[in-house]
Amino acid sequence: SDRVTSVLSEGGLLVVGTDDGLAVRRAGKWTVFGEKDGLAHRYVTSVARDAATGDVWIGTLRGLTRLSGGALRTYRQTDSGLMNDVVYQVLCEGPLVWAATASGTSCLDTRTGGWALYDVKNSIMHEPWCYALAVGPERAWIGVWGGGVVELDRRTGLWKEYRDPDGEMEVD
User: Fold this and answer.
1) What is the C-alpha to C-alpha distance for residues 47 and 69, in angstroms, rounded to an integer?
2) Is the pTM of this model over 0.85?
3) Residues 64 and 77: beta-carbon distance below 8 Å
4) Residues 59-116 pLDDT 10s
5) 115-118 sheet: strands from edge to edge
6) CA 136 – CA 156 distance, rounded (Å)
7) How much of the chain, in percent, has pLDDT values that exceed 90?
8) For residue 107, which of 42, 56, 64, 87 sits 20 to 30 Å off, Cα-Cα?
9) Contact at 8 Å (CB) between 137 and 156?
10) Are 87 and 100 in contact (CB under 8 A)?
């Protein structure tokens, strides 16, 4: 599709998410993946690549899909531990795969298969809709719709909130 939602380019790899599937270009050749091939949903919201394994992670409106060695594997909330099937952003950080979802943020440890889940029940998020992520070695930042940005200190487990209730950013 010409309606592109995300683009990833690393080395000789180009990955394009669209409203009608995923297109991957390697060595000048395109390969297209859709639901019939195992993609969780045709609408791709985000793509990320694991630098160590080369796996491509695909966020969709109906789950998270991993492209590894040409094969697709889908993770859904009903069978994997993913917090919600609506994945707005995915990013890779070493063996960790983070997914911002409509119900919170999920983090898959690909070494163990375990999930860490962050939502209104175990964080300072006031809303469940997580749209954006950034991670660093000691902190993770989650963009929450109507809730600003929440920061997780990964060493201590403590949270900090950045909100803009009156047009000026406040820190709680």
Assistant:
1) 16
2) yes
3) no
4) 999 999 999 999 999 999 999 999 999 999 999 999 999 999 999 999 999 999 999 9
5) 87-93, 96-101, 104-109, 115-118
6) 14
7) 90
8) 42
9) no
10) yes
Q: Could you tell me if 45 and 33 are in contact, meaning their C-beta atoms sit under 8 angstroms apart?
A: no
- Per-residue pLDDT tens digits for 103-116: 999 999 999 999 99
Query: Which residue is listed with tokens 């919170």?
Result: 104
CA separation (Å) from 162 to 106, 117, 119, 154, 165? 20, 20, 16, 17, 10
CA distances from 37 to 15, 31, 41 (A): 16, 11, 10
Task: Say if residues 62 and 82 touch (Cβ distance below 8 Å).
Answer: no
Q: Residue 32: enclosing H or E segment and its boundaries?
A: strand 29-33
CA 105 – CA 3 distance, rounded (Å): 26
